[in-house]
Amino acid sequence: MATVFIPSSKASSASSFSVHQSPSFPRLTPLSETTMEESVDHAHAIITKWDTKSPASLFRENRKEGREFLKCVKDLRSAMHFFLTQKWASGNLVLAQQLMQIAMKRLEKEFFEILSANRDRLDPGSVKSSISWRSSSSDNDLASDDDDEINVAGESISEVERVSALAMYDLKAIADCMIGCGYGKECVKIYKIIRKSIVDEGLYHIGIERKSSSSSQISKLSLQDLSHKIKRWVGAATIAVKTLFNGERILCDHVFSASDSITESSFTEITKEGAKTLFRFPELVAKTKRSSPEKIFCFLDLHEAISNLLPEIESIFSFESASTVRLQVSSSLLKLSEAVKTTLSEFESAVQKNSSKTLVTGGGIHPLTESSMNYITSLADYDGELSEILGDRPVPAQSPFPKSYFDSPKSIDNPPSAVAVRLAWLILVLICRLDGKAELYKDISLSYLFLANNLQFVLEKVRTTKLRYILGEEWIFMHEKKVKQYSASYEVMGWSKVFSSLPESNSYEPAMSPEDVKEWFTRFNIAFEEAYRKQTSWVVQDGKLRDEMKVSIAKKLVPAYGEFYEKHIGMLGGERNLEVLVRFSPDDLGNYLSDLFQGTSISGNSTSSSFSSQSQKSRPTP
Known about the structure:
Number of helices: 28
Distance between the termini: 152 Å
Radius of gyration: 45 Å
Helix content: over 70%
Number of strands: 0
Strand content: under 5%
């Protein structure tokens, strides 16, 4: 047995000096040599037992021996470093190198088998749960050979999560060992191949095909089919980001925690292709032909989905090598924003250029009003996305808001948002176009009724939707005043002839002659019948506005007629055809006015017979 060499302070021989002064090799005792040789002998026994020909699984059959195997490899590596410093140890170094190659082959096989056997258990959902559990458990808990200890440590998680956690521990231990021994390349190659196939398969199962559709193919889809496809994509993207890519990033970070560069290259190569395909779809949709203004909601749905996922996307794909994924996401958001802005401009232009000259019967709601307000109220539901998209657009100098809106103390602190200004502007464009439509009516009173009807419809849409909170109460108040102005103008133009067919009360003196009374009653009959005949076919769809307009007319007409009627009906007591001469009692007028704005046309003969029968029933005896 070699003796332990202890240098003496008195030694002065040249040979002993040379040993102490050697610049190439550190001075170690024969005890270290013995320890290293014993490490190689122990490693030889363990490694040859588990060479690649052994069919058993090292880590599945006996976890304790698996840990011992890794320890042997670590000791073997230390021995190799030692032998490299010793000239005499070339034989030991060769043996150690051979054992190391056998060990790496075995670990490579184990790494492959663990990845392959746990394809279903190492799904991203299990990975996230396993990492969460592992953070509260020590490596000794995970690596323990004692089943009872494992069960106690993992009693709060499922069996799948437990197996997943153990597999992740083993993968990390093997990866650390192989990377530390200089065999990281072989380990990473296996990992990339298997995990990429799992990620690609996961994307396929949620409906993301490897080869994305082209813009021309998407353009051929109907709006309904496109909306359905987008809905499925939003669901798939959420799963892909929150579960698939996130879980893969967690697994990569865990398994290759020994090397940041390996973590980055592995994750990027595994996920980049699938992620770019996934996030290219919104851009392709944005590039399709905008055959319908309603396609804007497809753009907004996609923009909202990506915006919601953006923080997680940037976190998961934070590596520099994954910048192409982030660029694709940014490009999709940009294209969608541009598509939204363009579609809004096209919608505005379409409203302005609407050239339909078809008159709406009875001055009712124009199809343009209904379709435009339905569109604008739907846009209001996306105020968050529109705010993000339109936020960089300055408030126009010609704002659709009143000047007082900006002058009020409240608006100084809270100026209208870009969304409020844009939507208010679209409504203003609609109202201006309706002014042009109103000019098509030959009857001026009907044109005012048309404007009152349509603006009331606009107001009701604003009051009962999210537009109320976007545009504000002052906007509503201003347009309520406008409806009242239109109603008043309708009343003046539609009933002034009836009002003027009655004499003013101060003209009763001096007393009228029976002939004068007959003439006034005849004038009123003609004027009222004409107004009634026309306006029973006119329409006021809003019940509240309809009642307000009827009440307003009745308050002016019925008392004035009643006063004239009561004062002069007695002068016509001797008339044979009194029911023809005086066709209406004061009570009749209220009944007739109730027929207004129902959209039911009454012919001349029907009107006369209706007036006659009604008058006979209600005619008082003079």
